Amino acid sequence: MRKFCIFLLLWLGVASAGALAAQHHWTAAELAAKNTAAKGGARALHAIRTLRLSGKLLINNGQYQLVYVELKRRPGWVRAEASLQGLTAVQAWDGKQAWQIQPFQGRKDPEQTPRDDAKGLIDDADIDGPLVDYAAKGYQLAYLGTEDVDGTQAHKIRVTQPDGDTLTVYLDPDYFLEIRIVARHLVHGAPQETVSDLGDYEKIDGVYFPFEIVSGPKGAAEDAKQKIEYDQAEANVRLDDALFHFPAAAQAK
Hints:
Layout: H1 2-23, H2 28-39, H3 42-47, E1 50-59, E2 64-73, E3 77-84, E4 87-93, E5 98-102, E6 107-113, H4 119-124, E7 140-149, E8 152-160, E9 166-171, E10 178-187, E11 190-204, E12 207-217, E13 226-235, H5 248-252
Antiparallel strand pairs: 1-2, 1-13, 2-3, 3-4, 4-5, 5-6, 7-8, 8-9, 9-10, 10-11, 11-12, 12-13
């Protein structure tokens, strides 16, 4: 009987703690701090100067599988490569200029990309994610309560960027890592929304990164989404400037 009473008291204590957590009135700043800590802490994040991620890009429910490599470098540079049957598509941003090579569309020469068309790519260039050092980035946060994300009551935070575009970030209530980001960008005067679901987090040099990302236009059917599955990540590898800059030979034409 005594063991039962002890068990009951322990259960009530856990239940009370859970109830208190549910009743906690979070602020966006508190959740941003939780997110930073959950990823590994500011010091570990800032120590990662470059990141090389590799894996595969799945399109049309996996009907097409491309070799995928993404390179990131502070302060906000990115290059993504997708290869299939000897052809490699490239998208890159060096902090000032976005450019691309699209051989699958019959264009094998580098082309400069208007900034509006590269907004999603620019978001991806952020190694830390939108909630880390948000004030230094000029972002404003607003906590919007919780919302169901595939059965999880996720914390919902609106991030307003300096140009007025927004990212709505959904955090897992137990681990405080991003499980969904909805990006709303104004592209050539028209709003566009992209939903990205993040998961399968793994630790690289003391920092957790998502190894699975499924993304597509808001409301898109499953076969209209793309899925990235990383199988390898390396931090602080040497990445030459030329990988990110618009090729000089193309610039000279």
